[in-house]
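Tutorial sheet, problem 5. The three components below are modelled jointly, 729 residues in total.
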Amino acid sequence: MIKESFFILKKDYKSELRNRYSFNSLLLFVIITITILLFSLGLEDISLDIHAGLFWIIVFFAATNGLSRTFVSEEERGTTLVLKLISESGTIFLGKLLFNLCLMLLLSLFVFILYLFFMNGFLIKNYFLFFVTIIFGSFGLSSASTIIAAIISKASNKGTLYPILSFPILLPLLIILIGLTKSSMIGKSIINELNQFLLIISYSGILITVSFLLFDFIWKD
Amino acid sequence: MIRLFGESVQKVFNGREVFNNISFDIHTPSCLGIIGKNGSGKSTLIKIIAGLLQVTKGKILYEIDGKTLSPDKLFKRIGFLSPYLQLYDEFTGIENLIIFDEIRNQKKEKEFYLDLLKKVELYDRRNDLLRTYSSGMKQRLKIAFALSNEPDVLLFDEPTSNLDDTGIELIHSIMKQHKERGILVIASNDKSDYYLFDEIINLNK
Amino acid sequence: MKLKYFIGILFVLVILLSFIPKISGNLTDVKFYSTIDTTKIIPVKGVISEISNNLYKFIDKDGNEGRLYASNITNKEGIFYLKYNEYENYFTLKKFENNTFFITFPFIPGLEEKARIILFHVPVAWVSVLAFLISMFYGIRYLKSENFEFDVKSVNSASLGFLFCILATVTGSIWARFNWGSFWNWDPRETSIFILLLIYAAYFALRSAIEVEEKKAKLSAVYSIIAFVTVPFFIFILPRITSGLHPGSADDVASPGGGPVIKSGMSFEMRIVFFLSLIAFTLLFFWIFILRNRVTELERKKI
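Model answer (structure tokens):
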């Protein structure tokens, strides 16, 4: 099952490369958001708390745009039937989860680079902690989002429904991530924050396990 | 020897009963035909038999040489064709076939796919994006897809749709050939398909 | 006896028992809190006997003894509001109240009089969680059997859970106003319950976005399971490990990581009233739940 799910990832990746559906809109969204922020802040300095919050706001809302596409695009184009003919439901879930994970990682890194270049006052003292946070953050955010994306792909009104369903479930992760980001900016050591990472792992782990078990019910008509 | 067995199959959708008490029993070399007016549930029934939809009541069983085939493994042994099957527009003909087999973990040598495309007369257009295909060409690629895992069971919903005379000849020869080795399920309104049927399910009430 | 009369009587009893008893700590509490906060005045129920001019021997409700300095004492028995004078090793009287009811509630730091709200706020919150658990339970049963009766029960339980959750938020908010000054503070537990409300509001949004009955029931069932899996995290884990204002958070002096309900901040009598309240609200929930199930089933069968 795992081997096959990597091929699903490969298919989605190739698809994305040809279509650039998600890629372009995410890119544009991030650039526009940062531009607006730059204009409104001008030369003013903002506190580290706010920087940490803004960073994850941009990542989260950009992600909201892109993470639901994995299932919605299949549903809208009618290709779910083919997927059912070539794989088990678990394979699909894992494949889409992997795709969302990669998307989140790339997105966070992209936001990080732009943010670093353009926002002043964004100084990180502990880079190791920062990047570990991004990795765990991508893992956590994509784990909850994938199952929600699957659920809303079967409903009508998908655009507005996705943020409504995913936001509450992802909020605790966001709170933890913002805290960790702030810690990395003021230079705290990663050892002090180990229990936060434990929280992220346990929360995401439980969600992934439950999602995997329930996916079959969503996928099969 | 493959056997397809269905007992008292009922499908209710959104409070409405589509069909009820459908039973059938065929084995190699046989063809099950599903006929009925538009909207009588032909596509629904064939999807159920293919394992793409679930029954409301009743059961459907596949047996290969006497052993029951688990529904999870069904997709590896069947080939499915229907007008609403969509393949990926952004990939070429041959890419579609290869990617599907990779996901199915049944990838074969490139020659296999080239031969398959030759058989459906799409060899010349194999490296063109599916977006550029006509509807007849898409139908032929779908036939290639249905045959790509060398299935025991072929399930065809409106097999001759979008095909010209050559195409229709082609698919009829494929269906006749396949019938010897496995079983066929065909849902069709086209009377010229009917000669293949050994057992018939009529969904007209 | 009809269930609704029983529930009514139970509620009246709970309300009476919640508001009539007075708060009383003991002398050990007074000594303990004088080291933390020198301005605190603590009520203690007890009996005095005169030793000499303005100096009395004081025995509190738990049997502790101490010396009391006071002028103008009228009664030998009642609720004495005391402060501890460490230098002189006696207690000084700041205020006095007559007490006639035999039950008193213990002194819980940070809450005192407002402790009464525990008897409503906490049971309502627990019943809400129970309702969400039942919603998940029937969600699972639906997925296994595809029987619409289970879907009906799952929604009804979720609706009631949502209602009780709103009640918990409102009582909590009133409590916050009296205790910490404002109705909302974004304390971790307040944030948690807010998120919980959002999660179940999303449940109803999901249901209204699907028209096909089977899909609606199936996807709701899946979501009810996912939603409840996050509940223990929000209700039990997150608020206890982060620091905040609510009792039981990481920097609660008297009961860190637990809170008065779990870590025996309540006396025996108070615990009894608490359980009565819990039973009352639980019965109320089941009564409404069963009635609503019957009504929805009848409506569904009519269609």
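Marking note: Chain C has seven helices and seven strands. Full credit if you identified this.
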